[in-house]
Design a protein that fits this description.
The complex is a heterotrimer of chains A (252), B (290) and C (334). With 290 residues, chain B is mainly alpha-helical. Chain B has a domain of 201 residues. Helix content of chain B is 73%, strand content 3%. The longest helix of chain B has 29 residues. Chain B is globular and about 60 Å long. Chain C has one domain: ABC transporter involved in vitamin B12 uptake, BtuC. Helices cover 69% and strands 5% of the residues of chain C. The chains are: A alpha/beta (252), B mainly alpha (290), C mainly alpha (334).
Chain lengths: 252, 290, 334
């Protein structure tokens, strides 16, 4: 046993779709409690990277180690069971159910059962508490509304709550802030900061650079599936290559 | 014997391709899995039979009328029924299956069962191909099959409607932006697919008799070929037709004709288990491990 | 227009679909009536009708079972176009056990129920990852394939089938057994789908990726749903085999696939009571239409089309909505 294996270790992960290398030999490490930001232009392979780590897509090459354990090619539910929760970029809740009933599904999972020793009490109550935590106003009955009538902002919050319900150790947020207004983002940031204070490890994929740079310890930049830069937010911002990738030829 | 099996296998492959082309075209363009396809196939044959036998219309005129009629019915089915459940695949399947069922069983109810329901061949006679006798109709099937594939290729590459079809198939929303009326194109695609079913029926069915069961097995064969080839892919249809066609003929020759239909069904199962998107399919969501 | 119609939900309904606030016996009665009255009526009907219609009621119950099984599968996101598979497998297991091993119905029916469930689940296990029409196509192909295999290999009596099987004590016994089975399955499924377990099943239908990232093995849950559904279907097949005292290739016929779907579509999917109601409308109706012979299936087909297009929610949903609402005319304020 090596001492202090990295919390998450990704080595030269590669996935090809047709002729396109969606993710091309990407490697990175993650320490426990770290917040890693992932940025890159559209189509640079960010979501595919998440899919590869969480097992939704099988990599062509490369490995993923989680807490020293090889999780490459495991089924998504096994990976989730180990404590990696992910939020989808495209929210698609269970529309026919009230919001709080949506959370029953992660609360019903074997992982939660194991962690609570089977004594979770009333799942409905836990679900409503969780939703309140992410900003569903219980007093105005928002948690009881059908998911189909909730506005986008609430659905995004629910997506976060769905991750939290799993009691994960690593959360991967795929463009959680996309489509939200400034005010909504501002109201969601404290929730994420609270998660950080609980020593959760977070990978954030984001287009909102300002918010991302504020909370993340480290930023990784992808372009055409390749990692082109990695480091503290400030350094990455100033890197020539990143400017070129984002601004194209205008930067000369 | 072996050489004969090869030749008949090839003819069978072209037959399957003919049957599957229409189904595939409709699915590729509008995304509708037209489960009424088998019924339309038989509808064309019975229409031709009625025109020929009852109304005593000239042979070529009646087959042309039958094909036109079938494609008209196909268009109507889309315009007035399937359009209302567009985008709900399960409802589309159930509704089109219901239509097919109604058409086929209606013919059964009218008493269209028996051996007198046959269509005449185009040209009678047979020729010898290196020692194997083969009737001219079978050669015609091959000819028409190849001609249709070439026609479809030219149609989708050089006519405005054909290009609009391809646009729809690739990206419906973008096609809408470019001024392609997707409802109209989908209606046309169904009419076109049904017309192809009619052509297939009129070319293939003179070899045997027209029977209700033929409709069900045509649907199954079309499904098998399209699933194995990858739904919506024309190259896939051709390759799968060859694979299944030869497999069927060899099975029929060396194991027994009872097993012929089982080949298609097994092909559906095997491909769905091992490669759900088919040999040439591009359904990305099926690549995902879920 | 001076007046307009106003529709209001009755106060008994709380904010969500399945939470009620009951304050009086009157309100409890209001909920009990639609549940108890149909059962009583059904029981009365069994006492009044003759042997012929008793037989019809038995086959109605059998189709109702298949429709319930279809609805459970659909609730878990698996659309089946081949209920005949479950029915046929159950029927053949029963026939084989009775014909070759001389087991009495007391044993054949339970064994066929469980065994049929296991066999069908194993058959469909490799395609559990398929969704939508892909899964539907497999279920469409499987019963047809089994028929052809039996035809080609001539096993289990081949095209002749197995006849002279043991019967059940009496028609009345068959009738009550089948009706009790329907009610039991209905009650069980309706309960099940509203538990947290059922919620997971419904979640799989709506968004299986989301269920998976919640650390739940959807294949395991789908397999369980499949087992329950196919066991119910196999029970129906086993029962019918002993009623007819015969099993043969017709058990894989289209009727057993189409009618349950038609029942569910007509009655209203997703409620279990709806498909059962649909079966109780369609099967006696088709019996009454026996005079028109082959037109029966045409009518099913048209029912399928009309209901999927015009009333996709089905009869049951419609009446349920109406029952929980009251309408009144109110003055339009200018």
């Amino acid at each position: 046993m090596k001492e202090e294996a990295p919390f998450l270790k990704v080595t030269s992960l590669t996935k090809q779709f047709g002729g396109v290398r969606a993710v091309d030999t990407v490697s990175f490490d993650l320490k426990k409690g770290e917040i890693l930001g992932v940025i890159g232009p559209n189509g640079s392979g960010k979501t595919t990277l998440v899919n590869l780590i969480t097992g939704f897509v099988k990599p062509d090459a490369g490995k993923v180690f989680y807490q020293g354990r090889d999780i490459t090619g495991m089924m998504p539910h096994r990976i989730a069971d180990l404590g990696i929760a992910r939020a989808f970029q495209m929210v698609k809740p269970f529309y026919q159910l009230p919001a709080f009933k949506n959370l029953i599904i992660p609360l019903f999972s074997p992982r939660v059962k194991r962690l609570t020793g089977g004594k979770y009490g009333d799942r409905d109550a836990i679900a409503i508490d969780l939703l309140e935590e992410v900003g569903f106003e219980r007093d105005s009955f928002v948690p009881f509304k059908m998911a189909s009538v909730l506005p986008h902002g609430y659905l995004k919050r629910m997506e976060l709550a769905l991750c939290m319900a799993l009691r994960p150790e690593l959360i991967i947020l795929d463009e959680l802030f996309s489509g939200l207004s400034m005010a909504e983002v501002a109201s969601m940031l404290p929730i994420i900061e609270k998660l950080m204070s609980e020593n959760l490890t977070i990978i954030m994929i984001e287009h909102r650079l300002r918010e991302l740079f504020r909370i993340s310890n480290r930023v990784m930049v992808l372009n055409y599936g390749k990692k082109i830069a990695e480091g503290p937010p400030k350094e990455v911002m100033e890197s020539e290559e990143v400017k070129k990738a984002y601004l194209g030829s205008e930067a000369e | 014997m072996f050489q004969g099996t090869l030749i008949y296998g090839f003819v069978n492959s072209v037959t399957l391709a003919l049957i599957a082309l229409g189904f595939n075209l409709t699915f590729g363009i509008s995304g509708v899995a037209n489960f009424a396809y088998g019924a339309l196939y038989i509808l064309a044959a019975y229409t031709a039979w009625i025109l020929l036998t009852w109304l005593k219309i000239n042979y070529f005129l009646s087959i042309v009328l039958a094909v036109i009629f079938t494609s008209f019915i196909g268009g109507l089915i889309y315009r007035f029924i399937l359009l209302r459940v567009r985008g709900m695949p399960i409802s589309e399947v159930i509704a089109s299956f219901g239509i097919g069922l109604a058409i086929l069983e209606f013919f059964r109810f009218l008493g269209f069962v028996g051996s007198e329901y046959t269509l005449p061949v185009f040209i009678d006679g047979s020729v010898s191909l290196g020692g194997t006798y083969i009737d001219v109709q079978r050669l015609l099937i091959v000819g028409i099959g190849i001609a249709l594939v070439i026609f479809l290729w030219l149609f989708t590459h050089y006519t405005k409607t054909g290009l609009a079809f391809r646009g729809m198939a690739q990206e419906e929303r973008t096609a809408l932006i470019l001024g392609i009326n997707s409802d109209k194109m989908a209606t046309l695609s169904l009419a076109f697919g049904s017309g192809l079913a009619g052509v297939a029926a009129i070319t293939i069915l003179p070899l045997g008799q027209v029977a209700i069961e033929g409709g069900y097995s045509a649907l199954l064969n079309a499904l098998a070929v399209c699933i194995v080839g990858g739904l919506g892919s024309t190259v896939g249809v051709l390759v799968a037709a060859v694979l299944i066609g030869f497999a069927q003929t060899f099975t029929a020759t060396y194991i027994g004709s009872h097993w012929m239909m089982i080949v298609s069904l097994v092909a559906i199962l095997v491909i769905l288990i091992f490669k759900p998107s088919g040999l040439f399919g591009k359904q990305k969501e099926l690549e995902e491990r879920i | 227009m001076e007046h307009r119609k106003e529709r209001i939900d009755r106060g008994i309904k709380a904010r969500t679909e399945d939470i009620y606030a009951l304050f009086s016996y009157r309100e409890m009665l209001y909920l009990l009536v639609p549940r108890v009255i149909p059962i009583l009526v059904l029981f009365l009907v069994t006492l009044l009708v003759g042997v012929y219609w008793q037989k019809v009621l038995i086959s109605t119950a059998v189709f109702a079972l298949l429709a319930l099984s279809w609805d459970l599968l659909t609730a878990a996101g698996m659309v089946s176009l081949g209920q005949a598979l479950f029915f046929g497998v159950g029927a053949y297991i029963t026939g084989i056990l009775n014909h070759y091993f001389n087991l009495s119905p007391l044993f054949t029916i339970p064994i066929a129920t469980v065994g049929g469930g296991v066999v069908c689940t194993l058959l469909l296990l490799p395609v559990l990852r398929l969704r939508g029409i892909y899964f539907a196509m497999v279920t469409l192909a499987l019963p047809l394939m089994l028929v052809r295999i039996i035809e080609a290999t001539k096993i289990f009596g081949g095209t002749e089938g197995l006849s002279g099987l043991a019967g059940l004590p009496s028609t009345r016994f068959e009738l009550y057994l089948s009706l009790i089975a329907v009610l039991a399955v209905l009650f069980f499924f309706r309960r099940l789908i509203n538990t947290d377990y059922g919620l997971v099943l419904r979640g799989i239908r709506d968004n299986d990726r989301s269920v998976m990232r919640s650390g739940i093995n959807i294949y395991w849950f789908k397999a369980q749903a499949l087992f329950m559904a196919s066991a119910v279907g196999a029970f129906a097949g086993a029962l019918m085999t002993h009623v007819y005292m015969f099993v043969g290739m017709p058990v894989f016929e289209m009727d057993y696939s189409i009618l349950p779907i038609a029942s569910a579509v007509v009655g209203g999917m997703g409620t279990f009571a709806g498909p059962m109601l649909g079966a109780f409308i369609l099967v006696p109706l088709s019996e009454a239409l026996r005079g028109v012979g082959g037109l029966r299936i045409v009518i099913y087909g048209l029912f399928l089309v009309i209901f999927t297009v015009a009333l996709p929610e089905g009869i049951f949903h419609y009446f349920q909505r109406k029952y929980h609402q009251f309408e009144r005319w109110v003055k339009v304020e200018k």
